[in-house]
């Protein structure tokens, strides 16, 4: 009976429960790359669970050893990382002596109608709308032609930091990929301060930390940045070199939605090449986002 357990016994049981659950998962199950070779432990390693949960390996190890108590947000994240069902999640919280009430989840973001109309009217300017965590909520056909065909990506991977770090084409598209990627990490770190308990943001950070050593290193540097303005140079496979100014506009109706546009000075080589790219996108039927996004 859980009710009769002492504090230490409950913590020990919680540790054994966590250990058993991670032993049942493979790297592939949680979206990690298979590294090949013999694994000394069945299932996930402690450090893999810790990184997916965005906590230290030492902290997670002490949890499994029954030496510390976990906060409700950490338990909630571990329940997601370990793919616990509702009963298992309730059991985990009961062992920890925490309430089993789920944290309030923010609703799925949808692009504001006025931003969608603006996107539809921008035929010669690449533009997209980003939401929380850099999620890509909507885009026009020229943005898809410029960066990637977002419609081909699973919805959960329509996220700018995810694309920057997992799509090899991005490292050749950006003339200075490292600077751009560092800015994405700094913007994500700023958002983490605003929504520290966002489970999807925690999952994104954990997964990217496991996949890319640069992300893990730069995340640990705690640099921050807001979405403002800047200039970037792209080496596009169709249009060639593009030197683009980017600007970000925030929706008054939802401050977590940002319209990013890339522009070039009229008469410049980049301005002319954008028109060529727009014509190519039309010929290729590069899709914009649906108006019902």
TrEMBL record:
Species for this entry: Actinomadura miaoliensis
Domain of life: Bacteria
Gene3D superfamilies in alphabetical order: 3.30.450.180, lambda repressor-like DNA-binding domains (1.10.260.40)
Stretches assigned to the HTH cro/C1-type domain: 43-89
Record's protein name: Helix-turn-helix domain-containing protein
Source species taxonomy: Bacteria, Bacillati, Actinomycetota, Actinomycetes, Streptosporangiales
Pfam families, A to Z: HTH_31 (PF13560), MLTR_LBD (PF17765)
Family matches, as SMART domains: HTH_XRE
């Amino acid at each position: 009976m859980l009710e009769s357990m002492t504090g230490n016994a409950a913590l020990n049981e919680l540790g054994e429960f966590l250990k058993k659950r991670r032993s049942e998962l493979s790297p592939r199950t949680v979206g990690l790359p298979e590294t090949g070779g013999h694994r000394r432990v069945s299932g996930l390693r402690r450090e893999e669970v810790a990184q997916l949960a965005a906590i230290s390996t030492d902290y997670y190890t002490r949890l499994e050893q029954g030496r510390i108590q976990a906060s409700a947000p950490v338990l909630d994240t571990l329940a997601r990382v370990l793919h616990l069902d509702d009963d298992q999640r309730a059991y985990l919280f009961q062992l920890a002596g925490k309430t089993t009430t789920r944290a309030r989840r923010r609703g799925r973001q949808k692009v504001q109608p006025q931003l969608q109309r603006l996107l539809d009217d921008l035929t010669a300017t690449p533009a997209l709308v980003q939401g929380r965590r850099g999620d890509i909520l909507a885009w026009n056909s020229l943005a898809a032609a410029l960066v990637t065909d977002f419609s081909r990506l699973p919805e959960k991977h329509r996220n700018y930091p995810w694309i920057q770090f997992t799509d090899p084409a991005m490292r050749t598209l950006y003339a200075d990929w490292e600077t751009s990627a560092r800015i994405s990490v700094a913007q994500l770190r700023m958002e983490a301060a605003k929504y520290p308990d966002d489970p999807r943001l925690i999952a994104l950070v954990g997964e990217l930390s496991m996949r890319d050593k640069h992300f893990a290193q730069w995340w640990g540097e705690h640099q921050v940045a807001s979405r403002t303005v800047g200039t970037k140079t792209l080496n596009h496979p169709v249009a060639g070199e593009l030197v683009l100014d980017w600007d970000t506009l925030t929706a008054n109706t939802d401050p977590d939605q940002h319209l990013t546009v890339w522009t070039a000075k009229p008469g410049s080589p980049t301005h002319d090449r954008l028109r060529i790219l727009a014509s190519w996108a039309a010929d290729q039927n590069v899709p914009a986002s649906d108006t019902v996004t």
